Amino acid sequence: MSSTSIVITCIIGLIMAVMHIRHRQKVKARRAGMFAECQSLLSDVNITQDDVNFPILTGNYQGFSVKLEPIADHVGYRKLPSLWLLITVKADIPYQGIFDFLVRPQNIEFFSPNEHLEYQLKPPEHWPQYASLKTDNIEEMPPIELVDKHITLFEDDKTKELLITKKGVRIVYQANQANQSTYRTLRSLAFDDLSLNPERISYLLNTAIAIHQDLTDTKSPNHESNEHHYEHFTELKAACQ
Question: How far apart are alpha carbons 68 and 33 in whole angstroms?
Answer without folding.
Answer: 13
